[in-house]
Amino acid sequence: MLTFAEYDRLDALDLAQLFRRGELSAEDMCTAAIHRAQVVNVALNAVVYPLYDQGLAQARATDAARARGEQATGPFAGVPFLVKDFGSRLAGVPHTGGTRAYRDQIPEWDDELVRRWQAAGLLPLGKTNTPEFALMGVTEPELHGPTRNPWDLGRTPGGSSGGSASAVAAGIVPLAGAGDGGGSIRIPASCCGLFGLKPSRGRVPCGDGVGEPWQGAAVEHVLTRSVRDSAALLDLEQGPDAGAALFLPSPERPYSEEVGREPGRLRIGFSTAHPLGRSVHPECVAAVQGAARLLESLGHEVEEVALPWDGPALAQAFLMLYFGETGASLAALRDTLGRPARASDVEAVTWLLGQLGRSYSAADFAAARASWNVHARAMGRFHQNYDLLLTPVLATPPLQIGELQPRGVQAALLRAAQQMDVSGLLRRSGQVDALATDILEKMPYTQLANLTGQPAMSVPLHWTADGLPVGVQFVAPLAREDVLLRLAGQLEQARPWFARRPTVGRAAVGEAAYSGSA
């Protein structure tokens, strides 16, 4: 019999090892995950499309295959898993991207990354909440309602992979699918006390029929509690994808072998300056300064530096992408709706962003896209002197639910945008710049790695005085996930976080045993 306490203290690789040894069944694990979800998901709203019956059927088939003497396939055989409702598609399951316009969209095939997850042995038990079109750094879609942070139900788990982060932090599953086009792995990792690695551009396959999501800025991977789970799954995700526009060669060694290797003496530049000249919360500053002291104690050379990129210029380039891709997403709704999209089909903020995207020219977009290379070159020069860059992930601890909802003038502009095209007026009035600052003021650090294509990670090394997690970000040169994973493994040993867990729902679960046996 498997108790929640037993399930909760094991990462995915530990669970899979017990399964391979015959000490734990796949049904045990999935039943534990489902029971946990039933206890806490009412409060969290992390899982929006449960697949519990399907998952249990797959678990029983996995157990039956083992009973017949068939060798378990994949290092994660039998482990329960959740898939984000954006990005990679899961056959036969709604793929809404957080928008009501797609609530009836049900793909007929699994995308390549889902196939690789299943080949690894993972058993999908459902899909997780995401903001509309994965646009926001909080997870509060009108379609499904807000997802809440298990560390504090009044706060966001971040976004856009907020549903996945909330579920992993709450102990429903040990890992879950996530994607990152502007920080959407690292932001929720920071908010929920998890490890979140954004791989390099081209490292992980994207959806079938998609060459370079968000012009190559977006990439998928997972959110985990342990570093080694993230590394081992990256080994199974990476590799050539037929027809893909870009992929990186396989690493010299498996990433799973990097986690226990000594990182050597690294030269790390750190900064707590705000890229847009705004203020940074003292807890986020303390998180970076504490990480710098820890790194020095581990023998690394750490030095405070000026931010090596032009913050306002990068923000403008990212926002051109943001507006343009939203406009393209709205245009693509025609294929589903059979007509052009209307304001009533999407949320008010999404509609306004799409209007702004349509208001710029192709030349504007091309010029902004070309500027990504300026930032990549700047980081290339930085990495000639420093192995890694250390910054906050966010400029604030986890925000209150609803804190980013438009108010006052912005709310009035949104109402006007639903009635008429106000994009030209907004641009002339300067409100676009105000909107841009509001969007990025709280989360200005993560977009860099998306535009340059570099790997970056959020590591949970700090908790506030009132118990909220605050991650720190490390950015490495392109294709150097190995450096990040070696350092992450060292930090995990030096300042363990795995056992530090939120209390949401645990009193209700207690030590009750779940049904099922090995």
Task: Tell me what the structure shows.
It is a single chain. With 518 residues, this protein is α+β, with helices and mostly antiparallel strands. Helices cover 42% and strands 12% of the residues. It has 19 helices and 13 strands. The chain has helices spanning 4-8, 12-20, 26-44, 52-67, 112-119, 162-169, 186-192, 227-237, 255-258, 282-297, 311-337, 348-359, 362-382, 408-419, 423-429, 431-441, 447-452, 481-494, 506-509; strands spanning 2-3, 47-50, 80-84, 123-128, 175-180, 195-198, 219-224, 267-270, 301-304, 388-392, 456-463, 469-475, 513-514. The strands form 3 sheets. It has an 8-stranded mixed β-sheet, sandwiched between helices. The chain has a 3-stranded mixed β-sheet with strand order 2-4-3, with helices on both faces. The protein has a two-stranded antiparallel sheet with strand order 1-13. Helix 11 crosses helix 12 (348-359). The model is unreliable at 507-518 (pLDDT under 50).
Instruction: Report mean pLDDT, rounded to a whole number.
Output: 92
**Strand tally:** 13
Low-confidence stretches: 507-518
**How far apart lie the N and C ends?**
8 Å
Overall geometry = globular
Based on helices, strands and strand pairing, what is the structural class? alpha+beta
Strand residues, percent: 5-15%
* Main β-sheet, spatial strand arrangement: 5-7-6-11-12-10-8-9
Q: Assign a percent range to the helix content.
A: 40-55%
Annotation field: number of helices: 19
Main sheet overview: 8 strands, mixed
> What would you report as the Rg, rounded to the nearest angstrom?
22 Å
